[in-house]
Amino acid sequence: MRQPLLWNLGDATPTATLREQGFVRLTPARTAALAGIEIADWSLVARHWNDLPPDPHLRDGGSYRFRRHASLRLTDDGSAIAQRVERAHWQPLDYNALHGGFERWFAPVTDATLAEPGLQKLLFAFGHIAAEAAGHPLPYVELHQFRIDTAAGIGRPTPEGAHRDGVDFVAVILIDRVDVRGGESRIFEANGPAGIRFTLLDRGSAVLLDDARVIHETTPLQPDGASGHRDTLVLTWRGDGFLDP
């Protein structure tokens, strides 16, 4: 796998880069330009991560993950939310050996969060790139708000380890990062030995993945002080319906 391309280097578009190497990294400035939001607007988006309830399904005994979840059906052009679908999050054991094989009901993303203009712009902008790369609409979206907290020590963004999600495309967008060390993103070819590692450090830094072509994980977080946290917006897209049992 070649060194990852950033949208602000060379003439390659995010879609072209995603098609070429199976993932694309975006700087905060390029994420903001792509979504049409100002860097200063991140605080308006980030405030919606301050009331996430604990994840009730962690099987490693931890208490470090807080989250909300929503399933959305978009219009075919990906420019609006057509329907909110009440359903559990589900993954097969083949994709998630730790938490797969059973329905996980999480606290819902609030209506206020879904109505936040900056969050909608991120959803539609990243979805447009994914649909362009796929060559067809991707109307079935799951939206996850994650906070990994280090108040009790180590926090694990991906306790299941390196994995695929069983979807078409995945976006991980850094919303905030406060007083933590670690959290290195690692991406590997699904059918080869090559891989790359980097760390999302600043609000708005992001990575968009072709889930069929790459495997990904994020290393544990350690507190850099009394406590800290890492907030991410994770979006997944499918073209042929939600992933259900």
SSE layout and pairing:
Layout: H1 14-21, E1 23-26, H2 28-35, H3 42-46, E2 65-74, E3 81-85, H4 111-115, H5 117-134, E4 140-149, E5 169-178, E6 180-182, E7 184-189, E8 195-199, E9 206-210, E10 214-218, E11 221-223, E12 229-238
Antiparallel strand pairs: 1-9, 2-3, 2-4, 4-12, 5-9, 5-12, 6-11, 7-8, 7-10
Number of strands: 12
| Name of the CATH first level | Mainly Beta
Described by the principal axes of the CA atoms, the overall outline is globular
- Into how many domains do the coordinates divide? 1
Spatial strand arrangement across the major sheet:
1-9-5-12-4-2-3
Question: Please, could you describe this protein's structure?
Answer:
The protein is globular and about 45 Å long. The two termini are 33 Å apart. The chain is built from five helices and twelve strands. 18% of the residues lie in helices and 31% in strands. The strands form three sheets. It has a seven-stranded antiparallel beta sheet with strand order 1-9-5-12-4-2-3. It has a single domain (14-238), classed as Sandwich (Jelly Rolls). The protein is of the alpha+beta class.
Write a brief structural summary.
With 245 residues, the protein is an alpha+beta fold.
